[in-house]
Hints:
Blueprint: H1 17-27, E1 34-37, H2 43-48, E2 54-58, E3 69-71, H3 74-87
Parallel strand pairs: 1-2, 2-3
Amino acid sequence: SYGKLVVNFTAPEAPHKGDALRRLVAEHACEAAVFIGDDDNDEPAFASAAPDWLTVRIGKHSPASRAMFFLDDHAQMAMLLQDMADALP
Length: 89
């Protein structure tokens, strides 16, 4: 599969990012997850996310993306993470 400035080599039977994220959540008995991505290789994680997970795509809003929210650029990610940290008890 292809990213913006990379080529990812994976075996055809390898799980995608969505499978990996679901497995991590299950293995660690998490109630929810946050997944932030910036290219098409992240779409399987957005598409397979449970409704209560936070999914964010970095880049202009794309109607084809299954992410819940969009940030314009990577600089906004730092602000999002700080806001999330500030919201924790």
